[in-house]
Amino acid sequence: MTIAGSSYALFNGIGLPFTTPAQAQAQAQTTYNTRSTETIKYNACLVNCGSRCPLKVHIDNDIIVKISSEDGINETIFGQHQIRPCLRGRASRWRVYSPDRLKSPMLRIGKRGEGKFKPISWDEATTILADKLKYTIEKYGNESIFYMYGSGSTGANLQGRNTCKRLLNLLGGFLEQHGTYSEA
């Protein structure tokens, strides 16, 4: 995150000591609406749920400045469901710019819990994953593979939502979830 971006995030909505919260909000809104280079892109949440809520991502100079919900949901199509992202979804820009965000695969080199990792290539990571998956199926059977609903990123690719399930079915099947918290 740039200094300008972090300053905006830090001071957005904070008024001077003599302003009321309503005045501070008006000041922030006025400042925010004057951005001339802002564009809006649509995306979906990548959190631990079904990951299908639409996000309006406000971008200024290639930096995410705000994530909001879609206000114009057509109730004739979706019914009166409130298809709005939760706070975690709307706060996902902080995860994008987190200094702790992983940007490449990591391999644990120490004992579990020691926190010792080394970066590896994507080819090496997918090879390790494929080998471990084959080993687990051979030793424990396909029922030992559990596909977790809402694993975070599988729901974001709306066209390929079932790609992982299809792969596991081609390998002989897997244990499916039933009665998740999002199906209540």
Please provide a written account of the structure.
With 184 residues, the protein is α+β, with helices and mostly antiparallel strands. The protein contains 7 helices and 5 strands. It has helices at 3-11, 21-33, 75-78, 87-90, 92-96, 122-140, 163-170, and strands spanning 39-44, 54-60, 63-68, 106-108, 117-119. Strands 1-2-3 form a 3-stranded antiparallel sheet. Strands 4-5 form a two-stranded antiparallel sheet. A hairpin with a 2-residue loop joins strand 2 (54-60) and strand 3. The longest helix has 19 residues, at 122-140. The protein is extended, with a radius of gyration of 22 Å.
Comma- or semicolon-separated keywords:
184 residues; alpha+beta; Rossmann fold; three-stranded antiparallel β-sheet; 7 helices; disordered N terminus
Distance between the termini: 38 Å
Anisotropy-based shape: extended
Largest sheet: 3 strands, antiparallel
Share of helical residues: 25-40%
Number of helices: 7
Radius of gyration: 22 Å
Structural class designation: alpha+beta
Secondary-structure element string: HHEEEHHHEEHH
Q: Which regions contain 5 or more consecutive residues with pLDDT less than 50?
A: 1-31
Count structural domains.
2
Strand content: 5-15%
> Tally of extended strands?
5
Instruction: Tell me the strand order in the biggest sheet.
Output: 1-2-3
Task: Draw up the topology in text.
Blueprint: H1 3-11, H2 21-33, E1 39-44, E2 54-60, E3 63-68, H3 75-78, H4 87-90, H5 92-96, E4 106-108, E5 117-119, H6 122-140, H7 163-170
